[in-house]
TrEMBL record:
Protein name according to UniProt: Centromere DNA-binding protein complex CBF3 subunit
Record keywords, A-Z: DNA-binding
Gene3D superfamilies noted in UniProt: Centromere DNA-binding protein complex CBF3 subunit, domain 2
Domain Ndc10: 122-311
Pfam families: NDC10_II
UniProt feature coiled coil, ranges: none
InterPro entries attached to this UniProt entry: Ndc10_dom2_sf, NDC10_II
Organism for this UniProt entry: Apiospora kogelbergensis
Amino acid sequence: MAEIAERAPLAGKRLASERRRREVGTIASKLTDDSDTEGGDFSHSNLRLRYNTVRSYISAIQRLYEEQRSRRINPAPPPQGIPLNALKSRIIRVAYAQSRTEMDDRGEGTLKDAYTIAHIPQHTAAVWQERKAIACALRTQVDFLLGNHMLLRSSNRLPIELPDCFCLDLPNEGIQRASSSPAAKALVILMRQGKTNQHGRMEYGAALRHRDPNACLVSAVAFWLFWRWQVEGEPFPQFTTSENWYHTKLIRQSLSDPTSPLSPQTANVWTRKLYERCGIQTSKASHAPRIASSQNADLAGVPEASIRSAGR
């Protein structure tokens, strides 16, 4: 395990940044020395794996040991104890010094590594400026606002199906003009899957209509469904039997396959594209709405217990 901790990463932003720094240093040395020597060897890296990467290796080894132990083919003691804990502690201790040596972005993971409330209408404007892949832009807008308004992870948002969505009357909300006034409605999402819900536990997310239509999840969902069924020509769900519509995804993969969820890779590509257009600068992609919304709620004075409850 100690050998694994001393390995250099094979890919990633840190390795690319190190190579760029070496290239700049090589060019500068050439200009200074005025020689025709070749550049440095970029195949060797001075970087080391981070704590989370080493921890994933440890988890994999422990799972392998447990499987072998259950089959009675590994009589060795568990791969845990004081040496392993000491290794973890050492990696954590040197992480800060290592990040300074590698010139890591010190703003990453801080309060500045997110967007503000003012960026949400700008994100909507970027969506409506799309002229080619309109469906992809509207779909990404729904994905973004689900994460922002309900603090949902990507693993909660992408599997949502039509039967998981319903409206709930709120008689004490909205404009109270007369007894015949229609009650305000909340958009409610039922969730029985996700990173922290592996056994079908029933959880809810909810959102009201926003006073700013450019930041409204309800209107974003309405425009997205209107585009699917009235513009693109996706067949309208048949509600006669559950089999006809229970597997229809809210954030579908494509027009030809509305029952398959959007892949996380495609979601990240479009999320990054719209972030760039509206000026959102963050190291996160699909997880940024959950982080930024929690921070914005805290700055607005929302109690921490309420934020934790919404974030599950």
